[in-house]
Amino acid sequence: MSDPKLSFATRAIHDGQKPDPLTGAVNVPIYLTSTYQQEAIGVNKGHEYARLTNPTRDALEESLCSLEGGTSAHCFGSGMAAITALCTMMKSGDHVVCSDNVYGGTSRLFDKVLVNYGLTFTYVDSSDVEAVRVAIRPETKLVHIETPTNPMMSVTDIRAVADVCHAKGVELSVDNTFLSPYLQRPIELGADIVMHSTTKFLNGHSDGLGGVLICTTPQQAETFRFVQKCTGGILSPFDSYLLLRGVKTLAVRMEQHDANGRVVAEYLSRKLGSDKVFYPGLETHPQHELAKRQQRGFGSMISFELGSLENANRFATRLKLCFLAESLGGVESLMCHPATMTHAALGVEGRQKLGITDGLMRISVGIEDVSDILADLDQAMGS
Question: Closest Cα to residue 325, out of 315, 312, 314, 338?
């Protein structure tokens, strides 16, 4: 179990990752088994079938639970599988309030799939706490927020929204993918559930899909364990191993991501003007002071406006070091065009409401030498 006296970086390396008792191996083995021998009828060593439990995945869940400060963690095959599992807490007729500027896959799941099962969704600017309060109805069961948002980097006051939710008997879930538990821990601010696409910063190496829900109550844990058992959308042993490997370096990676992100944001602000750059670490960002209070850093996710699709495409095709690719959180710098990638499903009108233009680019700043990143951005802009 976690020792609260140990620092985050130490717990990231050790919690859930004990040496193998059989061989002394310091890395948790990849248990590639679908079933387990039972000593007698009803007698086993804690495992029956791999859809229910796997020692590699168990170790990962213990690690992630510790880092977010929850009571249990439940890993799934992707971030979207985790979001889907989150919504199994509800039944037909229930209502969800959601940040209006979330990952496009989240709103697509809600609006194209889950509405068919009788759930209803209201999207609000969750940076406006009063808007969240007004949107909550008697049938509301969950408020789900991203902070910072994808891709406009708006910041929501987690503690204030949690207070509103709890006063009305509603649970709050927070997508913490953009910052990781190293830079933000929503449970400490009142969140009931934390969600991650573990594909991103937690893994950190762009080589494995995954998702996780971290809980704070036995009821939540029972629900998500049952969903893992019934739906089978679990994380594989190999992906669990890759994620355990990634988490060990989370603290040092996030320090470098954060340091590089601040430098790149300042560069883009000077180059394009501060009104064209969306990054909570800039003093000109409208929620800069809030971000300073509830985050331990600003991270490496930055969006910036280039004015047109033509400008964006010219810039993207000139990049040499930064990869034009979907996803984020890898050690390499990744450049994304939200209008045609992450938020294409919203349609033109949906994107316009959120300020996602054809000229908007989003960079996940990697941990390369920052001077090389700046040089690549500079030459791609034609400087």
Answer: 338
CA 152 to chain CA centroid, nearest Å:
15
Domain covering 8-248 in this structure, CATH number: 3.40.640.10
Beta-sheet pairing, 193-197 with 211-215: antiparallel
Return the CATH fold of 251-380: Aspartate Aminotransferase, domain 1 (3.90.1150)
Determine the Cα–Cα distance for residues 62 and 236; give it in Å rounded to an integer.
16
**pLDDT, one tens digit for every residue, the chain (383 residues):** 567 789 999 999 999 999 998 899 999 999 999 999 999 999 999 999 999 999 999 999 999 999 999 999 999 999 999 999 999 999 999 999 999 999 999 999 999 999 999 999 999 999 999 999 999 999 999 999 999 999 999 999 999 999 999 999 999 999 999 999 999 999 999 999 999 999 999 999 999 999 999 999 999 999 999 999 999 999 999 999 999 999 999 999 999 999 999 999 999 999 999 999 999 999 999 999 999 999 999 999 999 999 999 999 999 999 999 999 999 999 999 999 999 999 998 999 999 999 999 999 999 999 999 999 999 999 999 86
Verdict on whether the full-model pTM lies above 0.70: yes
Q: What are phi and psi of 251, to 5 degrees?
A: -60, -50
Phi and psi, residue 140, nearest 5°: -70, 130
φ/ψ (deg, to 5) at 154: -80, 145
Cα distances (angstroms) measured from residue 46 to each of 31, 49, 145, 233: 14, 10, 36, 21
To 10 degrees, what angle do helices 237-248 and 250-272 make? 70
CB 60 within 8 A of CB 218: no
**Where in the sequence numbering do the catalytic residues fall?**
51, 103, 175, 200
* Equal CATH topology for 8-248 and 251-380: no
Cα 153 off chain centre by: 13
Q: Where are the domains of the chain?
A: 8-248, 251-380
